[in-house]
Design a protein that fits this description.
Blueprint lengths: L30 E7 L2 E8 L5 E4 L32 H19 L23 E5 L3 E6 L2 E7 L11 E5 L17 H13 L10 E9 L4 H9 L2 H5 L4 E9 L3 H14 L2 E7 L5 H15 L2 E8 L3 E2 L1 H9 L7 E7 L25 E10 H12 L9 H15 L4 E4 L14 E2 L4 H12 L10
Parallel strand pairs: 8-9, 8-11, 9-10, 13-15
Antiparallel strand pairs: 1-2, 1-7, 3-7, 4-5, 5-6, 11-14, 12-16, 13-14
Pathway: Protein modification; protein glycosylation
Cofactor: Mn(2+)
Membrane topology: Single-pass type II membrane protein
């Protein structure tokens, strides 16, 4: 769509010749407005105009965000969230199919008869419009320039405090998104909300030794994932005198992301910011940082590494490591043997990067545990400049354990399928690729004594 020439005009007028101004592919698309939360998608709204912007807010505050990305304006007035798909989606697609036929007749067959069609959305090409989403007695209502265009019912069990991301996707420029008229909490409720956040803060560093240190790899922009971890399985870590967990996050290319990360780290006290730019090839340095923190900052028997989309069943993990004889060097996880590197595709590894035909035995990266003497060895070799680094951090750990075996002492390789590489199995130790909603679901089931998977994302 071309940029608007002036604001406020054209409400309800018929769309001017759209067909000659857009590429064919654009006629097949519709815009999608969606609100996402740790519990899943909050709202899905389909309209035949589009926007290219995504804004995110934290899960505990309702904020006002302005994004100047074009010359059109869209205002989304959010008073409540989470709804089923709108009633007009099928009708919009039917109209778009009709537009495709008209485009073909105009451009290919030379026909100039545009025909007659009812357009349910009062968007006008080259004109500004205001889209408002509001709540009523029976559900959510959408207006464009004051004209009602669609409604859809509520979904039970959702509140605005759970919203994490507002995203609008498509092909039309947008000047701003405004979240207004949000519900105001009574001061007593606001204080309670602050108290709940305070409960998520990490306790002070332990004065004595602990049994298990958990290092969680995360990215600067993964605030929602970290909040899901804090509100679920990390609660058991905070309440344990035998375990401790920290997020390990590298620097982002955007200054604002780093500023927000610093504020988050100062508030929750559970983030270790490592001083290099985040990239896939440098993830291995986060694993080295985990080993260093676990051996130099705290005193621990065992070190676990996982990702921020990994759900850790702490009580069962602790029970498993306690079965291992004290003083035994071990490497525990879902271990791959004779795994060959991929030489083609997205995750290809060149012969220059890895000349051998197979990797050493290594545990899958979503969750594994090593004894503290192995972590000490990793840090020592790094300081001496003798540690071999490979871009795949889990393979690197397998390589370091192999070097430890060759130069120090034997290691017990303990394989367990309960450290899930893909998804989840009942009676898991770790579950991988878990969305924030699944994290909450798994935590609720654990509270009921049911270590079962949650399939819905």
């Amino acid at each position: 769509m071309r940029r608007p020439r002036r604001a406020g005009a054209g409400c309800g007028r018929r769309l001017r010749p759209l067909l000659l101004l857009l590429p064919f592919a654009a006629l097949l698309s519709v815009a999608t407005f969606s609100l996402h939360s740790p519990g899943g998608i909050g709202l899905g709204l389909v309209v035949p105009a589009a926007v290219t912007v995504a804004t995110s807010t934290d899960t505990d505050t309702a904020s006002l965000h302005h994004h100047r990305l074009g010359d059109a304006v869209s205002r989304i007035d959010i008073r409540a969230l989470n709804a089923t798909p709108p009633l007009h989606a099928a009708a919009v697609r039917a109209k778009l199919n009709e537009l495709k036929k008209m485009w073909f007749l105009n451009r290919v067959a030379g026909q100039r008869n545009r025909g007659s069609m009812d357009w349910p959305y009062p968007f006008v090409e080259d004109e500004l419009f205001v889209l408002t989403l509001s709540t009523g007695l029976e559900g959510y209502h959408v207006q464009v320039d004051g004209r009602h265009v669609t409604s859809f019912p509520y979904r039970v069990g959702y509140s605005i405090e759970d919203a994490a991301i507002l995203s609008v996707n498509g092909d039309v420029d947008i000047q701003s998104i405004v979240a207004g008229s949000l519900p105001m909490a009574h001061p007593r409720n606001a204080q309670r909300k602050l108290e709940l956040l305070t409960e998520l803060k990490a306790p002070p560093l332990p004065e004595g030794p602990i049994e298990l240190f958990i290092g969680i790899l995360s990215a600067g922009s993964h605030f929602t994932e970290r909040m899901a971890v804090r509100r679920s399985w990390m609660s058991s870590v905070r309440n344990s005198s035998s375990a401790m967990a920290r997020f390990f996050v590298a620097l982002n290319g955007r200054k604002k992301v780093n500023e927000d990360l610093k504020k988050e780290a100062n508030f929750f006290g559970d983030i270790v910011i490592v001083p290099f730019a985040d990239s896939y090839d440098l993830v291995v340095l986060k694993t080295v940082a985990i080993c260093e923190y676990a051996t130099r900052v705290v005193s621990t028997k065992y070190i676990m590494k996982c990702d921020d989309d990994t759900f850790v069943r702490l009580d069962s993990v602790m029970a498993d490591v306690r079965k291992i004889p004290y003083g035994k060097s071990f490497y525990l996880g879902n271990i791959n043997y004779y795994h060959r590197p991929l030489r083609e595709g997205k995750w290809a590894v060149s012969f220059e990067e890895w000349p051998r035909e197979a990797y050493p035995p290594y545990a899958n990266g979503p969750g594994y545990i090593v004894s503290s003497d192995i972590a000490n060895f990793v840090v020592s070799e790094m300081e001496k400049g003798r540690l071999n680094l490979f871009k795949m951090e889990d393979v690197s750990m397998g390589m370091w354990v192999g070097q430890f075996v060759d130069t120090v002492k034997a290691v017990d390789y303990i394989h367990s399928l309960r450290f899930c590489q893909f998804g989840c199995v009942d009676d898991y130790l770790t579950a991988h690729y878990q969305s924030p909603g699944q994290m909450a679901c798994l935590w609720d089931k654990l509270a009921q004594g049911r270590p079962q998977c949650c399939n819905a994302r």
